[in-house]
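Hi U.,

Before I forget, here's the chain from the pilot set. I'm dumping it here mostly so it's searchable later in email.
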Amino acid sequence: MRGYRLSKSGILSGIQCPKRLFLEVHSPDLMKASDGMFGKISLGSQVGDTARQLYPHGRLIEYQDDLSRALQETKMLLSARLEGPLFEATFVHSDVVVRTDIFNRGETGFRLVEVKASTSVKEYHLWDCAVQSWVIEGAGYPIERVEVAHVDTSFVYPGNGDYRGLFLLQDVTTSIVPYREQVPTHVEELLKVLEEDEPLVEMGGQCTSFFECPFKNHCSPSDVEPEYPLRILPHGGKIVGELLAEGMEDIRDVPEGRLEKELHRRVHRVTLRNEPELDLQAGDYLRGLGYPRFYLDFETIQFAVPIWAGTRPYQQIPFQWSCFIESHQNELTHTEFLDTTGNVPMLAFIEKLLIALGNNGPIFVYSSFEKTRLNELARMFPQFMKRIEAVVVRLVDLLPLARKHYYHPRMKGSWSIKAVLPTIAPDLDYGDLQEVRNGTAAQFAYLETIDSQTSASRREELARMLVEYCRMDVLALVRLAWFFQGMDSMT
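Structure:
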């Protein structure tokens, strides 16, 4: 036996990039995981736990920190031919260890079910299943059928913990054959990677496929990347590849006339001049709108496993809104809604929003997100459909206005509100907020807020941070609209 063992996830990391696997094993302290990555891990655990509930006679293999005992218990229970599947059944073959989600005896062999939080079967799921089946058969257990259980978004939760129908089973027994044939070669190569020096691998497409690599900062120190890399060209695609092949790395290296798209030419022009560009037509349009004016932002939550009856997996459920009301020029008042009770929030959300927005005046948003949620709420609550439709026609989206009429070099190809705001209102800084500084953090905060185990003082603290964050998003809209009208000067 060699000095290292591979796990299923380790093999997938190594297939993505051998350097990633090496760093995961030898330098895990260099990992910089995003909030989203931690969220996916938590999500996968929640989905897996729910899948187990659908098999009341299943047995969980304990000793996940003790490999030898997990292997021993797996072997013992399989020999006993007990009714129901095993969860976390553990197998080892050729220095590769796997733990299965659901492992059950079939007619001529065993049935392997891999549970995924995604809504369809992905290529990396096939690799995942291929590795598992190769190890399990190598350990002496013939595989009869391999399936992926993924979330069915058409499922409507009836309540009372009844999740029958949440998952769709897809047979991948045949689909994984070409992947499985490659597994022994990958295992041999990746074990060698772990025994040698850190591999030299140039950054490329593998850095984001299958997943965003948590070692990107290590592989691309900030002092090495150009100040304005070509990748910031919006939807650069083919032209970015061509320019890189020609030896260019910074947008300022691109010769005039080389770019065809108007948006690319604007990013190039503004970056070369190193000064912002604002088309005054944006202000002309906004000055033509009347008062009162409303500035609106929503926060939503998604559950892979629905917690409220009548909702679907991954449904965007609004739980918070924040609104500034400008009754006359520069005269602002603020109102908001946040439900931290843990009860279904949508009805109270829309009832109070309709009251706050009244019957007239433009409603400023940033992107089509709020419009989409409002249309969903109209379908959900037909008693408010006409009133919601009347609100929708009043929406004024500042994102296309900004994209068409404004660009600053520091935006680096992005028109997200968090990229635009520092260039027009540097006094408003999301970094000054506490734990809740982005949408992902807001979702985590909301989940903690509605958790019955959260203390009253912590719930109050989280609610305050959620209010501050959502308020900042709306204040950003106010400042952007004022800026376009010449009421704030460019920085």
